[in-house]
Amino acid sequence: MKAIVKQRVEDKLYQNRYRVDRGRPHISVQKHLFPSPNLLALTQVCPAKCYQLNDRGQVIIVPDGCLECGTCLVLCGATREIRWRYPRGGFGVLFKFG
Q1: In which band, very low, low, confident or very high, does the pLDDT at 65 lie, cut at 50, 70 and 90?
Q2: What are φ and ψ of residue 86, in 5° steps?
Q3: For the whole model, what pTM was predicted?
Q4: 15 located within any domain
Q5: Is the pLDDT of residue 72 over 60?
Q6: Host domain of residue 65
Q7: What one-character DSSP code corresponds to residue 97?
Q8: What's residue 18's pLDDT?
Q9: Does 3 score more than 90 pLDDT?
Q10: SS in 3 state form for 2-63?
Q11: What CATH number does the domain containing 46 carry?
Q12: Is residue 66 within 8 Å of residue 18, measured between CB atoms?
């Protein structure tokens, strides 16, 4: 009988690849003086940890590594605090499994 090896989520995500479209990010955060609660929540709930607070307390995004899961659209799509579009063909996340 084979032993079941549990793999951490981080290890599974590491196996995915991301093809960066230099100069054409598919997500951007609208300019803001103070982030809304939803925008702040993205710094905690984005599974790829793409959203971060900068030294001025504003939310910024590093879209490299985005899983295109839609979490940011659920939180901030209706408020238009982010701009999200599908990456151009051949760019974006390349899932190893599935």
Answers
A1: confident
A2: -65, 145
A3: 0.76
A4: no
A5: yes
A6: 24-94
A7: -
A8: 74
A9: no
A10: CCCCCCCHHHHHHCCEEECCCCCCCEEECCCCCCCHHHHHHHHHCCCCCEEECCCCCEEECC
A11: 3.30.70.20
A12: yes
